[in-house]
Amino acid sequence: MNSRYRILIQGKNPKYFLSLLIRKHISIYYKEENHSGIIVVVDSDGYSQIRDIKTSYSIRVLNRYGIAKVQYLFQKYFIFLLGFLLFFGIVFFLSNLVFQVEVIHSNEEIQSIIYNDLKQFGIERFHFKVSYEDKERIVEKILEKETERIEWLEIEEVGTKYIVRVEERKKNKEEEECLPRNIVAKKDAMILEIHAEAGEVVKKRLDYVQKGEVIISGLIYNKEEIVSKRCAIGQVFGEVWYQVTLEIPKKYHEEKVTGKKKRKLEIQFLNNTYHFFSHYDTYQKKSKVLLKSRLLPIQLLFSTYLETDVIDEEYTIDTVDDKAYSLAEEKLKQQLSKDDEVISKKILKKYEKDSKIIVEVFFRVKEDITDTVSIQDIDIEKENQKEE
């Protein structure tokens, strides 16, 4: 990209000055005569020679092209550009700094433990933010370190603040606090395991029970007579049955947010957006206007981008099984606890309806079916009279 200069020559006889340029073998790429004088376009060497000529003629640069244009603009707006870059640098620096860390918990001792652990692993005020991956690793390390005290921990980044939510591990109540009760079935099921610590087991493995039916009794018998009542303690696992019905589009589209974030500065000029550094293209969560010009259609934004996994697939009756199992199990797990376990799954029925495929999936689940019913108000004497 060669430099060019568009020059206006003015004086008594501009043509004479033009002939002087020709005699000096200065390359002229364009020439135009008007009432103001003569306009010529020359290269960098030609412009340097013209500047060295001592003359009474007026020599004025009208425009520049190529590298000369870039150099001229850079020199003219250097202070503005320097201030602009400095401003962006300060904003970027401050936006990646942590100004506050807040641990949300009612127990001050737990708060103190978490603040100390966060500091140990690099999260504290006036330190730089950590990446999403590092933040997840810090959560795992704290949970491993405080496994006796902490059940669950989450670190949420809100602007220049970290909000830490924590759940304390609950300890089992002392056995003497347990009042007389029966252990019953929480739902209809087939018994798989009975773990009894106290009480009388009245059911056995593979028995079918209905919701509310007694499995471990707190009523203690001597022969056929109730002699005492106590707190039944134990846990029962049963096989529970579920049926999940799905409507899967033949053309399936899903955008799932992964949890990873990037916060970036960007300039919006007219309808175009120019980004500083890399960003996720998949989903823009929100933008905050930091600076806006009143004279030009330009503004400085601070935007949050969320990474998403985009899934586009097509299904038929013959190819939908794997997807149906995956979606049905994901839907089922919303009803189950983390200790429950899927034993088996089977597609009962599938058929097409309009642009969808209807699938019914049957699950056998090993589930904690332990529930309790108080027997504190039972009168032992009256119960023995009924038996007679």
Explain the layout of strands and helices.
Blueprint: E1 4-10, H1 14-23, E2 28-34, E3 37-43, H2 44-52, E4 58-65, H3 67-76, H4 78-95, E5 100-104, H5 108-120, H6 132-145, E6 150-158, E7 161-168, E8 181-185, E9 189-198, E10 200-201, E11 208-209, E12 214-217, E13 219-222, E14 225-229, E15 233-249, E16 251-269, E17 272-275, E18 283-292, E19 298-314, H7 321-333, E20 341-353, E21 356-368, E22 370-374, H8 380-387
Parallel strand pairs: 5-7
Antiparallel strand pairs: 1-3, 1-4, 2-3, 6-7, 8-12, 8-22, 9-11, 9-15, 10-12, 13-14, 15-21, 16-17, 16-19, 18-19, 20-21
Amino- and carboxy-terminal Cα gap: 112 Å
Supply the number of structural domains: 4
How much of the sequence is in beta strands?
over 45%
**What's the β-strand tally?**
22
Number of helical regions: 8
- Specify the biggest β-sheet: 5 strands, antiparallel
The unreliable regions are none
Shape: elongated
Helix amount: 10-25%
**Order of helix and strand elements from N to C terminus:** EHEEHEHHEHHEEEEEEEEEEEEEEHEEEH
Q: Helix- and strand-based class?
A: alpha+beta
Radius of gyration: 40 Å
Q: How would you write the strand order of the largest sheet?
A: 11-9-15-21-20
How confident is the prediction overall: mean pLDDT? 83
